[in-house]
Amino acid sequence: MRGAAWTGLGARPYRLETGPPSGARPEPPMLPLLRATLREFSPRVFPYRGFALALLAGGAGGWLFARAGLPLPWMLGSMTVCTIGAVLRAPIVAPAIVRPPMSMVIGVMLGAGFSPDLFGHILSWIPTILGLGVFVVACAVVCVAYFRRFGGLDPVTAYFAGMPGGLVEMVVLGEQRGGDGRTIALIHSARILLLVLTLPFLVQWLAGVSLGPRAPVGLSIADAPWTTEAWLVGTALAGAALGSWLRMRAAFLLGPMLVTAAVHLLGWTTFTPPAEIVNAAQLVLGTTIGCSFAGTPPRAILRILALSVGSTLLLLALTLLFAFGISFVSPYGIVPLILAYSPGGLAEMSLIALALQIEAAFVAGHHVVRIFFVMSGSDLAFRWIRPEPKP
Questions:
Q1: What is the pLDDT of residues 190-206, one digit of tens each?
Q2: What is the CATH topology of the domain spanning 48-385?
Q3: Count of C-beta atoms within a 10 Å radius of residue 225
């Protein structure tokens, strides 16, 4: 149909007119998208009861994981419980329309990891950052080949599942490129869980020290000043607008990350999203990912988990190899380099560094750079490897 375009905002596509009717006054281009989004939340369309049940199940999983001291509890816990519920055909559902706002919060959180202090350390970090670039490429090549050869995954799914980046980022980019988001999510969740559960024991053995209990990360929303919420909303909306204007892949994630990183590097603010808001975003994202496994046979899930164990062992071996090699050309030892290079959780690796009295900025800075490398480079490399057909 001429003059019409389709966009998948949720469970169903919507028809958006690209031009106003003859003789009508033109309207801003965002208004049709806003109206279509609001229609998604109409009681006749949005499954509020199923979504409420999904959030309750996901919240229970997040609470259990948090009480057990497991990494990324609100993301992995909610995803685990909702995955089990979806496989068992529980009446839970989480439409994709709820994901973009949560992705904006995660983007702001990632951007808040940048600070002007990074400029003062950049010279001493040159050898390790260069090594990190080679490490990211090596991990990607090895893991993608592993998933293609031993997992039989399709090229797009294997590519984004093998990238040593964040769970949410790779799921968003992989789905937009036509990959299986459920498989990508499960592989990255298992990678994060296995690495973060394994490395502390390895580090304790190498450093000969005992790690204490984990400290809380981020201010509570009750303790954060009102300017924190203002910066959070402002950078999220500005980033989403920038990402949409630049037609970025994963615009709701990359845009807020870039805007937040810019205001932090310029020294305008030092805010970080309150812990409760970040946890809520992870809860909703984990719930939506878990609910997407509805109808997936349990045998397929177990097979993907088995593949994840193999890829995690490969990543751990590469981390140790690069940490040992780079330690000869940098002032940092093997243990700080293991924490800095490990493709696990930024917050978890930073907390281990604090417990060992290692320079936390070094560890956190390298994780931020790794995430930025993967987020900005993986999609560009994918377009170079598999260019889109010309219309």
A1: 887 778 767 777 777 77
A2: Na+/H+ antiporter like fold (1.20.1530)
A3: 10
